[in-house]
Amino acid sequence: MTKPVLYPFHDAAATLMRFSKIPLHQGKASVRLEESADLRADVLVPAEGDCLIFLHGARKKLPRRGVGSGLTISGDSADGPFELTCPLFHIKASSPLREKLEWAILSPANQPMTIDYKAQRPAAKVSAIINNFDFEGVGLSVDASGRTVQFARCNQYERLRELANTDILRTPALTSFSFDVWAGASEQELMTFAQDVASLCAYAVGQHTGVTVLSLFDQDGQVIRRIIGNPVESRFKRGGILNNSRVPDGITKLFSQCFEEHVKMRRSSLPWIKLPSYCATIEDLPYLEERFAVLMIAIEFFIKNSLIESRNAMASRQIEKMDFNALIAAARSILGWRVPKHYTKKDLPRLLRNAIMHGGELPTKDSAEFRQVFDKWLLFLYRRVLMRLGYDGIVVSPQGGWVSTSPVSDFSEAHNSFSYSSG
Length: 423
Fold this sequence. Notes:
Layout: H1 13-18, E1 25-31, E2 38-44, E3 52-56, E4 67-77, E5 82-94, E6 103-108, E7 113-117, E8 125-130, E9 139-144, E10 147-153, H2 157-165, E11 175-180, H3 187-205, E12 211-217, E13 223-228, H4 250-267, H5 275-281, H6 288-309, H7 316-320, H8 324-333, H9 348-357, H10 367-389, E14 394-399, E15 402-407
Antiparallel strand pairs: 1-2, 1-4, 2-3, 3-6, 4-5, 5-6, 5-7, 7-13, 8-11, 8-12, 9-10, 10-11, 12-13, 14-15
Helix pairs in contact: 3-4, 3-5, 5-6, 6-8, 6-9, 6-10
């Protein structure tokens, strides 16, 4: 019996294909098992989550559980004939023994999956679909160390945004960015550049902004290769410290002023490459105590690496042993940071940190005060990160209980204090 497309999710096939990040790819699959197995395959990348590979065939030839390797698929798509290679995969689900129509659903694991198309001409342009990044307007052009990067809204943007705003869709891919291939660039260099662009976007929106699909096009606009990964995902949230509805030139200035330094930090011998992930993870956690714990880890990580980078007389081993208050004091005296007293009022940051890390009673009078301390220090972290990158523009900040803006270097109480009702 012939199985319908995307079986056993054939009832939802139209929706899955409508929001897929690549056209439906169908073909014959072979999995490196004890013997070669010819299977029918349907492949798409859904609106969120990993790529899905639907395999259909004889039960004894289908991968059943755990992980596997050496999956290849040959077939056709709207972009023409293709050859798909998936070095490693894990089986997400498979048909129960009682079901007559046998199937298995796989996703790539640990390594990117590649799709090569018949047209094998040199690459001229690269396009990357990115999670969670959004901006006001139809298009956005930025300068990244002399290379022009064009951001554009993805197909079905309006409906995807509605699904994200109503929490039906957790991690939407609302935008893509593209750039021209430069002379002599290797595929690895193009991928690295795309990852550099995407990771800088994480600071603007405070979320994981991984590349899900990277496509290489020839000079005629024909896709010649796709590289599909499985990046860490965040729950989408609106806004961000450089929300361009309030900071119109924030993102363009972020790239023109900070991209080169961002790349240097990612290549540094110090573990700066972790910083975007620290910042993006903070607000992903469900409970405020967890968020505050990760925020403190991120702040301490940032100060410690800044101290080591400053080449002061302190040894790395001595810096690693410093507690929160000692790090703040060193940031003031050695790094020259301005940390006004309203940040450390009643010693709340340290007391909160220690209570959360050690399971103690929270020292704040209510949840509203706790939230105020968290938001103040989160904004502090973002201000400091942007300044370290070289940004000198304005950021979204509070003022008198309302959303406002202020210079990134403004650490005044007026533009860093949040107001909430304890009710």
